[in-house]
From TrEMBL:
This is C-type lectin domain-containing protein. The keyword Calcium applies. Residues 91-190 form the C-type lectin domain. Residues 1-21 form the signal peptide. One of its GO terms (cellular component) is collagen trimer. InterPro entries: C-type_lectin-like, C-type_lectin-like/link_sf, C-type_lectin_CS, CLec_Tetranectin-domain, Collectin_CTLD, CTDL_fold. The gene is SFTPD. It holds the Pfam family Lectin_C. Keywords: Calcium, Collagen, Disulfide bond, Glycoprotein, Lectin, Secreted, Signal. It comes from the Eukaryota. Its main location: secreted.
Length: 191
């Protein structure tokens, strides 16, 4: 009668023989003490190649972001990327352009984001619509994703438009004004 550990040894031995015969050993080459082909101790080759594929993707993304930032095409702030198509549009069309591109109209959640959006407003020297609007009935100010605002940067005496001005524009000094939604304002999106 063979002991339990003998069965395990026999099973492991036949696995190694089979895998060598079929040249399929990379799946188990990461077993403790069996380095993978690239010498990465304990990491199976399949994981090691995922790791290096991810590392090259990361490097490529870094390069692309660097080029786009250098050319003033994007601004990175925290996890957000901000970008403008340089076009002026009414609020609904501006929002639509951003959503079609996979983002939404930029809505600053803090001073740092507000400053990053202001930099784009200054770059184009055009007031921009923010992704913020007044709720139809209550008039409560919300971001277009429906969240109530926890940050604001109203210009002095704003918002003053009552029911008349349901959208929000950013001035070149970064302050906000409630404004009619049918003006032509710079489109700035966040992704
Ligand atoms: C205009 C509009 C208003 C704004 C005032 C400020 O009337 O842009 O939204 O509040 O100017 O003077
Ligand atoms: Ca106003």
């Amino acid at each position: 009668m063979l002991s339990y550990s003998s069965y395990i040894l026999i099973a492991l031995a036949s696995l190694l023989v089979t895998c060598h015969a079929l040249s399929k050993c990379q799946e188990i080459s990461g077993l403790p003490g069996v380095p993978g082909r690239d010498g990465r101790k304990g990491l199976p080759d399949s994981l090691a190649s995922n790791h290096s594929a991810l590392a090259s993707l990361k490097h490529r993304l870094f390069q692309l972001e660097a080029v786009l930032s250098l050319n003033g095409k994007i601004r990175k702030v925290g996890e957000k990327i901000l970008a403008s198509n340089g076009k002026k549009a009414d609020f609904a069309s501006a929002l639509q352009s951003c959503e079609e591109a996979g983002g939404t109209l930029a809505a600053p959640r803090n001073e740092e984001e507000n400053k990053a959006i202001m930099d784009i407003v200054k770059q184009y020297n055009q007031y921009a619509y923010l992704g913020i609007r007044k709720e139809e009935t209550s008039g409560q100010v919300r971001s277009v994703n429906g969240l109530p605002l926890s940050y604001s940067n109203w210009h002095q005496h704003e918002p003053n438009g009552k029911g008349d001005e349901k959208c929000v524009e950013m001035y070149t000094d970064g302050t906000w004004n409630d404004k009619k939604c049918n003006m032509y304002r710079l489109t700035i999106c966040e992704f």
